[in-house]
Design brief:
The chain is an all-alpha fold. Helices cover 69% and strands 0% of the residues. The longest helix is centred in the last third of the chain and has 23 residues. The protein is elongated, with a radius of gyration of 20 Å.
Length: 228
């Protein structure tokens, strides 16, 4: 018997796992061991990307590649309707948005961003944090200080370009400004009950600081792009 852990997938994710196993029989053990939904979705998106890059060299029939694309296009909008993708799938969301923009449209991704930031602008820093430079060291007070002094290490032109390619960055910029205004109102005790509750939630200080660094850097780049 195999010692590989067994995972109970939701039906739509079970379908995706089965499809990947059929497409990549040599990788069945690895696919079986993929744990959470985010890990499975990331693997599926990376697989589709590789198949697209290599084309006919993979030996995978075009019909099977199309089947994977269709499965992802059923799953992603459905998941987007449940909650912000960047909250439920923070590590995979750049891959998700890139695929969605190419498979459907830039407008579809932007509409998801508009809907999920409307009324909840405090989500904007969390969205941007998904696009941070993941090679930058972020652990420990020394790393945090270094990033505060050199924010371009955490969010570069490269990250901004990747984001702006698949969604309207102006939506995020406006949400950041609104979030700042709400936070200032809360300081003076005149925020709404909902915003006070949100601002009172306890979060990791380091993560909040990193989100702030990314947000500030994003705004700098966006303002430069707007004025050029």
């Amino acid at each position: 018997m195999s010692d590989a852990p067994e995972f109970t997938d939701l039906p739509e994710f079970a379908k995706l796992r089965e499809l990947l196993q059929a497409l990549l029989p040599e990788e069945q053990p690895k696919i079986k061991e993929l744990g959470g939904q985010e890990e499975l979705l990331s693997f599926a998106l990376q697989t589709y990307e590789k198949l697209q890059e290599k084309g006919s060299q993979t030996g995978t029939p075009a019909s099977e590649q199309e089947e994977l694309k269709n499965a992802l296009m059923e799953l992603i909008p459905d998941e987007a309707g449940k909650a912000p993708l960047y909250l439920n799938y923070p590590e995979a969301s750049p891959l998700i948005f890139e695929f969605w923009a190419e498979a459907e449209s830039y407008e579809a991704v932007s509409e998801h961003i508009r809907k999920t930031l409307y009324g909840t602008p405090h989500n904007a820093p969390k969205l941007l944090y998904c696009y941070r430079n993941k090679t930058a060291p972020i652990q420990g007070p020394e790393a945090l200080q270094a990033l505060q002094e050199n924010p371009e290490l955490l969010f570069r032109e490269k990250e901004y370009t990747a984001l702006a390619k698949v969604m309207n960055p102006e939506l995020i910029y406006r949400a950041l400004h609104l979030n700042r205004a709400i936070r200032k109102m809360n300081v003076f005790g005149i925020g709404t009950q909902e915003s006070v509750q949100e601002s009172g939630k306890e979060e990791e200080n380091d993560t909040e600081s990193l989100e702030e660094i990314v947000s500030e850097r994003f705004m700098q780049i966006h303002e430069l792009r707007r004025s050029s």
